[in-house]
Design a protein that fits this description.
By secondary structure, the protein is α+β, with helices and mostly antiparallel strands. It contains three helices and ten strands; from the N terminus they run H-E-E-E-E-E-E-E-H-E-E-E-H. The strands form two sheets. Strands 1, 2, 3, 6, 7 and 10 form a six-stranded antiparallel sheet that branches. It has a four-stranded antiparallel sheet with strand order 5-4-8-9, with no helix packed on it.
Length: 213
């Protein structure tokens, strides 16, 4: 509410003449300053409330929308069951969007022995330290440095649960190690921005429930 700038009655101070000696002017000025200060403070509070509402709305919207999961995991011979003597090493890097259910994965491993280059590469299903069946074919492009030609595919609901519970691993095979030369367990985690949005959204919902209770 805007301040009321109308003239206010002055305070009688006694004395000779009109008896106010500028009291009305001084009183009106004081009142004006007080009203202006109250108005500014009120506007600042309203601005702060509006800003808070906007931030919370964005956070809740982010929490309600996609969570992007990321992974960046080593691929090497030590994870193979049993371990092999393959010297090639690399990484499996990618993202997963839990709304589109799209998994993107990029595997880069090298350098393999030229005599025994990669012959196959898959994503398998099993926890760390165990072997499992083939879940998805990554393909082989040839050469001593491996990169997967098949990078994107969609998970169904059951596969998403498996993936988010670290039950998938990458394995590259060679003629020397047909059962698997190198392996990398996939360990997805929410990216920081998604994690922050989820945290804020959960905090807001918890406060709303507390107030209703």
């Amino acid at each position: 509410m805007a301040p009321d700038f109308r003239r206010r009655p002055g305070k009688y101070t006694g004395g000779i003449g009109n008896g106010y000696r500028g009291g009305a002017v001084e009183s009106n000025l004081d009142a004006f300053v007080m009203d202006a200060n109250r108005y500014v403070r009120g506007e600042e509070r309203m601005h702060s409330i509006r800003l808070t509402i906007i931030i919370l709305a964005i956070s809740i919207a982010g929490a309600a929308n996609a969570t992007v999961w990321v992974f960046n995991d080593p691929v090497d011979a030590s994870q193979v069951v049993p371990p092999t003597g393959e010297l090639a090493t690399g990484t499996a890097v990618g993202t997963y969007d839990d709304v589109t259910n799209m998994l993107n994965i990029n595997v880069a491993v090298g350098v393999f022995n030229a005599i025994y280059p990669p012959t196959a590469a898959h994503i398998h299903r099993a926890p760390f330290g165990a072997n499992g069946g083939v879940f998805h074919v990554l393909g082989v492009a040839g050469g001593v440095n491996y990169t997967n030609p098949n990078t994107n595919f969609v998970l169904n609901a059951a596969q998403e649960v498996d993936f988010l519970n670290n039950l998938y691993y990458v394995q590259i095979h060679t003629s020397l190690n047909p059962g698997g030369a190198v392996r990398g367990q996939l360990n997805p985690v929410p990216e920081p921005a998604s994690l922050f949005a989820l945290g804020i959204g959960a905090l807001v919902l918890a406060r709303r429930r507390r107030r209703k209770a």
